[in-house]
Amino acid sequence: MSHTVTLPQTLFKRLEKISGSRNTPQAIIKQAVIDRVEYEEWFAEQVAAGVADEKAGRVYGKEEFWLQLDKARNERKKAA
Predict the structure, then answer these.
(1) What is the mean pLDDT of residues 8-31?
(2) Distance between alpha carbon 55 and the CA centroid of its chain, in Å?
(3) Is residue 45 part of a domain?
(4) Three-state SS for 22?
(5) Domain of 59, in residue numbers
């Protein structure tokens, strides 16, 4: 299945300029779309996992967060 996407002429000219012999503008666009879709899927999974953690009570309150951060900083200083 193939779909057409309309790009502004200025953007397509920029794609042609960087494409060279290794990649066509179409290949660059395809990879960009793949990368973005994968990122959006990963991001949605991370948000869902965070919401699930919050609902299950696996979160720190503000005070506990700062205590844990200070603890991590001190451990890093000792290791250095």
Answers:
(1) 93
(2) 24
(3) yes
(4) coil
(5) 9-79
**Residue pair 19/25 in contact by the 8 Å Cβ criterion:** yes
In whole angstroms, give the CA distance from residue 39 to residue 50. 16
Helix orientation angle between 25-55 and 9-19, rounded to the nearest 10 degrees: 100
* Structural domain count, the chain: 1
Overall pTM surpassing 0.85 (yes/no)? no
* pLDDT value of residue 75: 95
- How many CB atoms sit inside 10 A of residue 25's CB? 17
Q: Which two tokens stand for residue 75?
A: 């451990």
Q: Mind giving me the DSSP string for 53-78?
A: HHHTT----HHHHHHHHHHHHHHHHH
